[in-house]
Design brief:
Distance between the termini: 57 Å
Number of helices: 5
Radius of gyration: 24 Å
Strand order of the largest sheet: 1-2-3-9-4-7
Order of helices and strands: HHHHHEEEEEEEEE
Structural class: alpha+beta
Mean pLDDT: 78
Largest sheet: 6 strands, antiparallel
Low-confidence stretches: 1-17, 191-207
Helix content: 10-25%
Length: 207
């Protein structure tokens, strides 16, 4: 038996928090007029005005459309307080993952504008075959072994303690130059992108 709150006439439970204050604030924060925001959400200005004044409650599909319009979440529209992410990543936390012979461990929190990883790069006798080109920036710091880094036409050999920071639009290849492989800390700025896995196996690449 369904004992949840009964839906109102627009398909939204009657006891959901009023979204009117959030809608007004988000529109003002976005610097949009009522007419411009309504056009983005494919609503009439009169309909959006009724939503902002609380004279009408949005349906669930409309909540999703409004969240996309303002670049936010349904939770924020409903005034819910997001859970604060734990800033600490403990040793022995998320397990290892493998892709294309690389092994990596999460070294930073999720839902951020960049991703931090600890990576084991396998040995390659020469320059890695796969050339990667994609938007963003990368930073790496060698912990163990020797790392071969090709940036454009230049090749660098990095020893433990060496770091590199470069624009990912520069064609680049990464491989270990020592037989046991190399271990490094790796940070990239692609967490929010569909290309998030491009540097560590998978994703779109160019040969």
């Amino acid at each position: 038996m369904n004992t949840g709150p009964a839906p109102g006439p627009d398909g939204v439970p009657d006891d959901l928090p009023a979204v009117a204050p959030q809608l007004r604030e988000l529109r003002r924060r976005a610097g949009l007029t009522l007419e411009a925001a309504a056009a983005r959400a494919r609503l009439s200005p009169a309909h959006l005005s009724r939503l902002e004044t609380g004279r009408r409650q949005p349906s669930l599909p409309l909540l999703l459309a409004l969240a996309r319009t303002y670049g936010t979440t349904v939770s924020e529209l409903l005034g819910e307080t997001p859970t604060v992410a734990d800033p600490i990543v403990r040793a022995g936390g998320p397990g290892a993952r493998e892709a294309d012979g690389w092994t990596y461990w999460q070294a930073g929190g999720s839902g951020r504008g960049m991703q931090a990883l600890r990576v084991h790069v396998p040995y390659t006798p020469g320059p890695a075959e796969l050339v990667r080109v994609h938007p963003g920036e990368e930073w790496l710091h060698v912990l163990k072994g020797r790392l071969r880094l090709n940036l454009g036409e230049a090749e660098y050999l990095l020893e433990p303690g060496d770091s590199a920071h470069f624009d990912s639009l520069t064609p680049h290849r990464i491989g270990a130059a020592s037989a046991a492989g190399a271990e490094l800390l790796f940070i990239h700025t692609l967490l929010q992108s569909s290309l998030a896995g491009v540097c560590l196996g998978g994703g779109s690449t160019h040969r």
